[in-house]
Fold this sequence. Notes:
The structure holds two protein chains of two kinds.
Chain A: E1 4-6, E2 10-13, E3 19-25, E4 31-38, E5 42-51, E6 54-57, E7 64-70, E8 73-78, E9 87-94, E10 104-105, E11 109-113
Parallel strand pairs in A: 2-11
Antiparallel strand pairs in A: 1-3, 3-8, 4-5, 4-9, 5-6, 7-8, 9-10, 9-11
Chain B: E1 3-5, E2 10-14, E3 19-21, E4 24-26, E5 32-39, E6 46-52, E7 59-61, E8 64-69, E9 74-79, E10 88-96, E11 105-106, E12 110-115
Amino acid sequence: DVKVTQSSRYLVKRTGEKVFLECVQDMDHENMFWYRQDPGLGLRLIYFSYDVKMKEKGDIPEGYSVSREKKERFSLILESASTNQTSMYLCASSPGTDVNYGYTFGSGTRLTVV
Amino acid sequence: AQKVTQAQTEISVVEKEDVTLDCVYETRDTTYYLFWYKQPPSGELVFLIRRNSFDEQNEISGRYSWNFQKSTSSFNFTITASQVVDSAVYFCALRMTTDSWGKLQFGAGTQVVVTP
């Protein structure tokens, strides 16, 4: 089974801190995604990557950046955390060419910015 | 543009009742895929079903069934004889084959609460 692992389940950070959320998948998937989940808004795409060192903005990239130095790892970076970035962050991966395939998700990181 | 609407924010039922979750989508593409995911309290979204736009057959898997109606752009999900373990947030999602990156567009989710 594909496994997507997010390094932290819960994080509490202070306003202005630089925050790294890490995601690792073990199935050699080309595509990786970062979503945030907020009540009433569902899942909104922040960034995605279709290959090493490649990235594309999603629907809400402002205040975030990403890094993909290795195929299995996709990091989300909050350059200067703000309270409105308090949310659940979900990482997902999928094969690059199989349009039949959905996503495999990690368990999420619940980030609180105080 | 594409959009997925789950109009029901929360549904509360008593165990053994049936519950139907609505999903309405919008897309101009003729080829697309629809998904349902379950998010239990643990947080990880779990894949339930995928349906492509050319297959309008309804599907049943145990207590779960799905009704895909292309004419009304709906892909509804029914849990029969609900159980407490069905308590979760359920997401409907849309994926178009014209999107080479395979992005999924999610609805807002429906929280299902099943009480004993």
